[in-house]
Amino acid sequence: MPSDNVITIRTPICMLYLVRGNDGYMLVDAGTWGHYWPIRLALWRNGIKPSEVRCVVATHEHPDHVGVLGKLQAKHGWTVICHADGVDAIREGRVIIPETRNRLGRFCAGVGRCIRWLLCFRAMEPDMVVSGDTSLEPFGVAGQLVHTPGHSEGSMSVVLDSGEAIVGDLMGDRILPAPGPPLFGYSLDVLYESWRELLRRDVRVFHPGHGKAIPADKVRAWLEAAGEPTE
After folding, report:
1. What is the spatial distance between Cα 116 and Cα 46, in angstroms, rounded to a whole number?
2. Domain ranges in the chain?
3. Which of 89-98, 101-110, 127-136 comes out lowest in average pLDDT?
4. I need a labelling partner for 201 at 20 to 30 A (CA). Which of 1, 41, 74, 186 fits?
5. pTM strictly above 0.90
6. The domain 6-225 belongs to what CATH superfamily?
């Protein structure tokens, strides 16, 4: 079960998360350009001052996850952390319409191209660019950042010592699209290997960017249904 140290911020577009550390909080993902005030409201509802947030992690470079990174950095001085394989899009403010696997994905990608202007975000320079496993101990959080590509090349997960992982769009448990792999992704083989890597790290609960929390047994069942090894 999810621990009390992970607070879910539910928005109509995606899930954002606050992680309680020893000396403040970490925000995971920054929604679209309109998500600044929902984030501030979530802080207020949970009795958290903006000054108590130490950093914000972008799980990947897509516009529904990095929308207000620049604003949060400029207004509050939060340390922004991104992965090296996705940082160019963030630095350029470049809206990426990702690769997709099926007709529904192609339809959604077409809609995205038509409303690209609604997905725009401010170009910004992250404070930290990481590549390999990176400890979150300097921010008072017991856990680490782990590169988990497949949805995008710059995808990474926040893996907590509690056995939880915040995984962005690495997977989802929703009616549409079907539960399991995300609608968008450049390689199912790479994606499944990222799932296995997190299972090997004893992750018991996966917190996705879209949909509800997913137990590890369900992830193993998805791998088995796809004819994939679970280890």
Report:
1. 33
2. 6-225
3. 101-110
4. 186
5. yes
6. Ribonuclease Z/Hydroxyacylglutathione hydrolase-like (3.60.15.10)
